[in-house]
Amino acid sequence: MKFSVVIPTYNSPRELEFILCSLGRQTRLPDEVLIADDGSGEETKALIQSWVEKLPFPIRHCWHADRGFRKSRIVNEAVRQSTGDFLLFIDGDTFPHRRWIEDYVRAAPNNTVLCGRRVKLGPKISETISFQKIEAGAFDSLNSALLFSSIMGDTKRLSLGIRLPSFLCRVLHPRSRKLMGVNFGLSREAFFAVNGYDEEWKVYGCEDRGLELCLRNSGYTLTPLLNRAVVFHVYHPERPRSAEAHRLIRAQEGSCKKRCVVGIERTTEFATDE
Fold this sequence. Notes:
The protein is α/β, with parallel strands linked by helices. It has a single domain (3-253), classed as Spore Coat Polysaccharide Biosynthesis Protein SpsA, Chain A, CATH 3.90.550. The protein contains 11 helices and 10 strands. The strands form 2 sheets. Strands 3-2-1-4-8-6-9 form a 7-stranded mixed β-sheet, sandwiched between helices. Strands 5-10-7 form a 3-stranded mixed β-sheet. Helix 2 (42-52) links the parallel strand 2 and strand 3 (59-63). The protein is globular and about 50 Å long. It starts with a strand and ends in a 21-residue tail after the last helix.
C-alpha cells in the first residue's frame, strides 16, 4: 500500500520546514508528499525547492493564486495529483513524531477513518524550535523542556504526546472521535466517495467538520488514533471562525448529505493561476 502525505500551507515557511525535516526522519518514509499551497509567496516556493533536493521521496508543490481562503480547492487538487492508496493529512503549522507514518501504516483498515490529535506547544517553547533540533531528535520522546513547558502552563495536552502500545490505546480511547484536519488519515476510496472537501466552502473554519459529516453519513467509522501518530502543533494566535462558517456547518449537521456537490470530482479542468 502506498501512503501519500498532504500538507495544506499558506505563507508559513518556518513551520513547513519543520514538517519536511520530520518527514525525512520517519521510520517509515512517505511514498510521496503533496504540498497544498493556498497562494504562498516566493519564500515558500524556494524553501520547498531546497528540500526537494534533500529528501529521498518525491514532493509535489500544488499552488494557486492567493484569492482568499480556498484551502478546500487546493487540497482537492493535491489529492488529485497524488498516487497513494491511503492519504495522510497534517496541517502546515505542525510537525510529526518520527513514528507518525509507521503508526498509520499499522492501523490503516480500508473502511475506517483514523483520527489523530495534537500536542499544543506553547508560545515560549515554540520560539525555541528549529529544524536542527527536530533533526537531532529533540521531540522523539518526552524531555525536560517539554515537561517544564507543560508544568508552567505553556504547552497543552502533553499527555497526547506519550506514545503508547496500540492495545493500550484501544482500551483508553474506545469511543469514536471527531475528525481534525491537523492529523487524520483515510483511504483514497473513502475520500473520493464523499467527493473530497467542499470547494464551495470559502470561509475559514469548520471545513474539516463538513468532510467528517459526509463520511459519517456515508457509513464510514471514525476511529481514534490517540497516543499514537503523535503530532506537535507550533503556537500561533488563534484565528476566530466566522459566523458564516458556523451557519454553514449547522445547516449541514441538520442534513443527511453524503457528498459535496463541488469537490474533487469536478467537471472543469484545474488551473493553477485561478
